[in-house]
Design brief:
The chain is an alpha+beta fold. 22% of the residues lie in helices and 45% in strands. Strands 1-2-3-8-5-6 form a 6-stranded antiparallel β-sheet. It has a two-stranded antiparallel ribbon with strand order 4-7.
């Protein structure tokens, strides 16, 4: 049998592939850089109504990023983390997301 580490990577890859197949924006959508500071980077991929935001934290500490998304999402839109189900509302054209160290969020509108 494979070590637990490899099983975890395999499951993560299967989930990522399934997400990419589910969202055309992740395959062929436009790319918009939204935020880049202190090891945190956020980007959007969008194609027609299919719009997602990914937020990456390459650092060793939890970080919170606040950035403009008003051109992509209306106020009141709730973006949900596809991996963990946490909700992030768009308020005043701004999205505020907290990201654990060395991890990422993938957010999709409900």
């Amino acid at each position: 049998t494979a070590p637990h580490f490899y099983i975890t990577i395999e499951i993560a890859m299967e989930r990522a592939i399934a997400l990419r197949l589910e969202h055309p924006a992740l395959r062929t959508g436009a790319f918009t850089s939204l935020y880049a500071r202190e090891g945190v980077y956020a980007l959007a991929r969008h194609l027609d109504a299919d719009r997602l935001v990914a937020v990456f934290n390459a650092g060793q500490m939890p970080e919170t990023a606040e950035f403009q998304v008003g051109e992509l999402f209306q106020d009141g839109t709730v973006l949900t983390d596809v991996w963990h189900g946490h909700d992030y509302p768009v308020q005043g054209g701004t999205l505020r997301a907290s990201v654990l160290p060395r991890s990422a969020l993938v957010l999709a509108a409900r």
